[in-house]
Design a protein that fits this description.
This protein is mainly alpha-helical. It is built from 21 helices and two strands.
Length: 517
């Protein structure tokens, strides 16, 4: 099974190279990306099956036993996240064939997209902090390339804000890693779980923990460090925004989960309380931010922030029940955010703008597509039996279990307020009549086939991933049992990481020259 983990990294890397060096049309390069992402999805399914059947998998690179070498390790949380990452990669690759201009594709769009996927997968399966930092750097370089590729002035302005704040996060992360290595002499996360409690200067350990909280909090768009996200997401092509909204903040949440359960004491009341209250404030401000905007992309960007709050609340409550709810919500959030941004891209293509005041008439012209948006919106709100309902019910159940009246109140309030901006999109873009003076807006310039004054003919490569993700979300809601079970197993693995640590510390690869002693 050792080859499975390294293959999860090699497939997107090879796809990235192939989509750039193969002399082919833009469509063919997109199809190469689709094929590579599909292979990653199939392989990730095998990894999930192996983890569900046999427990965590580990691979010691180069034959060096942990904690001396580079460790790749996958537990249930990592396996689930790799699967949904692969789903998003397939859908975005297919959607981008029609959404991204040929100029951007020829400039290396699919190369940077697949390198970004490689960085995300690498962050999910690395077993040491330094390589986590390396994969964050791979992600940062790829995102910067996607941000500036073929960009105009507005896009470059968003790129500067995005990269500037993430560079601060990177510096803080590197400083925290350096201090932690100085205190413990190791960066292997399983080894750190044993050594950190043995450090004499626990005050300095607390300082390092705060540095990690700030660094990962920036990447996860946690209050008050989220301002870079709504300032940059609306400037990008929808294909880029979809993958960013689905994955980038979730890698930050994953890093927080892994760090503050495995390395630092999971029962630290101060850390849990901090995460809980940050989550509540992030949740509320995300929802209120969405209510103040009229651009669909900005509205959805603030909903990304709001969803981060729900995950932090689950982490802050600290129990296995609450952590399982946070993991389930994260899986739901990755898929629903990708779906909603793709739907927004089709709305922009059909209506010629992302501004609600310039849209209208979509229900009369595209009733089937309108129902797809309505289902996605109702899922985000939390209407049964869609996936968002179970995600929020699990968070509420955790709050009730902990007798946390404030948590229950804020979660219910945020869920109700989520309804307002989404129903406004429905009312303005879909239900009302199309404005008489509607013309092709400048927002449509990002698309290869901008709409005319009548609604554009849909592209199959845009519709297929939207319909596919919609089907997954419906199935997610109708049959949530297995995903809930896996989420609970992942939560138990985080809070009781004995099997994770044993898998890492007792797995020794056999190099060509013989067994490592």
């Amino acid at each position: 099974m050792n080859g499975l983990l390294i293959s999860c990294l090699l497939i997107p890397m090879i796809t990235a190279v192939a989509s750039f060096v193969v002399p082919a049309s833009a469509t063919t390069r997109g199809l190469i990306s689709v094929v590579g992402s599909t292979l990653l999805l199939l392989l990730s399914g095998v990894v999930l099956y192996q983890v569900a059947t046999h427990g965590p998998l580990s691979n010691q690179m180069g034959g060096w036993p942990a904690p001396m070498g580079i460790t790749l390790v996958v537990d249930m949380l990592s396996a689930l996240l790799i699967v949904v990452t692969a789903i998003v990669a397939v859908c975005v690759s297919l959607f981008a064939i029609d959404d991204v201009s040929e100029e951007r594709i020829e400039g290396g769009f699919f190369t940077f997209l697949n390198m970004l996927i490689a960085g995300v997968v690498g962050a999910f399966i690395t077993g040491d902090l330094f390589n986590l930092y390396v994969w964050f750097e791979v992600m940062l370089i790829s995102t910067f390339a996607l941000l500036v590729l073929g960009g105009n002035k507005v896009q470059l302005d968003g790129a500067v804000k995005y990269v500037a704040i993430n560079l601060i996060s990177t510096v803080l992360l590197l400083a925290a890693i350096g201090l932690l290595y100085g205190l413990t002499g190791t960066l292997n996360m399983a080894d750190l779980s044993v050594r950190v409690p043995q450090v004499e200067n626990q005050g300095l350990v607390s300082v390092v923990a705060v540095l990690f909280l700030i660094a990962f909090g920036i990447k996860a768009a946690v209050f008050p460090l989220y301002f870079w996200l709504p300032a940059s997401y609306h400037t990008l092509p929808i294909s880029v925004t979809a993958v960013f909204a689905a994955l980038m903040t979730k890698v930050g949440i994953y890093a927080l989960m892994r760090t503050f359960t495995l390395i630092f004491p999971a029962d630290n009341e101060a850390i849990n309380a901090t995460l809980l209250y940050l989550g509540l404030v992030t949740m509320v401000l995300g929802v209120f931010g969405a209510m103040t905007h009229s651009d669909i992309r900005r509205i959805l960007a603030f909903h990304v922030i709001g969803s981060i709050g729900f995950m932090l609340v689950g982490m802050g409550l600290g129990s296995a029940l609450a952590m399982g709810a946070a993991i389930f919500y994260m899986l739901h959030g990755i898929l629903i955010k990708a779906l909603l941004f793709m739907i927004a891209g089709i709305v922009g293509k059909l209506g010629g703008s992302f501004e609600l005041s310039k849209l209208g008439g979509l229900y009369q012209e595209r009733p089937g597509f309108s129902m797809v948006f309505l289902l996605a919106a109702l899922s985000l709100i939390g209407i049964p039996p869609l996936s968002g309902f179970w995600a929020k019910v699990l968070v509420l159940e955790a709050g009730l279990h902990h007798d946390a009246a404030l948590v229950v109140t804020v979660v219910v309030l945020a869920s109700l307020l989520t309804f307002i901006p989404l129903i406004r999109i429905w009312s303005e873009a879909f239900w009302k009549a199309k404005p008489i003076d509607a013309v092709v807006g400048t927002d449509a310039a990002h698309h290869k086939n901008p709409p005319t004054k009548t609604f554009a003919k849909p592209d199959h490569c845009s519709w297929l991933p939207v319909l596919g993700l919609s089907a997954i979300m419906i199935l997610f809601g109708l049959l949530p049992g297995k995903v809930i079970e896996w989420s609970d197993v992942a939560a138990e693995g985080l809070l009781t990481p004995t099997r994770y640590m044993e898998t890492v510390m007792q797995t020794t690869a056999i190099p060509d020259s013989g067994e490592v002693q």
